[in-house]
Amino acid sequence: MKLTARERYGLRAMAALALAYGRGPVSLSRVAAEQRIPPKYLEQVIVHLRRAGLVRARRGPAGGYELALPPESISVASVLQALGGGVLQRCCGVDGVCAFSQEAHRCRAKGVWDMVQTQLERSLSAVTLAQLATAEAASGAEPAWATRADK
């Protein structure tokens, strides 16, 4: 499984927001700096996450972004789907072309890829942002802004 830059940055930003959950909104510039994400790119990523209802914005001097749901309620699969559609890019069925057959509907491997897709989605649906945030915090690299109220 290969994640796009949008998906990698989105997961990192969401894990950062999960660490700050319950402490108020966090500015995108802080998330970008801490996660080493280009700020302009993060602005584009956050639009997709907001449209999917995973984050919300708060305006004003104490504004920023925060998770719209508890980190335990947001799966890695839902973040990836908000950022790119599917979880696994299949070789079959794209513009009617397949790596194994000239016509996607005749592909003998399609059933296998469908099964892999289902299992991958099931596995990623079981991993939450809370788990990602816990793993990040356990690494000892908790961002400075996660321990401070941005109100």
In short:
This protein is mainly alpha-helical and about 150 residues long. It is about 45% helix and about 5% strand.
List the topology elements.
Layout: H1 5-19, H2 28-35, H3 39-51, E1 55-58, E2 64-67, H4 76-84, H5 110-125, H6 129-138
- Overall mean pLDDT stands at 81
- Counting DSSP H or I runs of 4 or more residues, the number of helices is 6
Biggest sheet strand line-up:
1-2
Estimated structural class:
mainly alpha
CATH superfamily grouping? Winged helix-like DNA-binding domain superfamily/Winged helix DNA-binding domain
CATH fold type: Arc Repressor Mutant, subunit A
Q: Can you tell me the CATH class?
A: Mainly Alpha
Please describe the biggest sheet, giving its number of strands, its sense, and whether it closes into a barrel.
2 strands, antiparallel
The CATH architecture can be named as Orthogonal Bundle
Shape descriptor: elongated
Q: Low-confidence spans: pLDDT under 50, at least 5 residues? A: 142-151
- What letter string, H or E per element, gives the SSE order? HHHEEHHH
Helix residue percentage: 40-55%
Beta-strand segment tally: 2
Q: Compute the gyration radius: what is it?
A: 18 Å
* Count of folded domains: 1
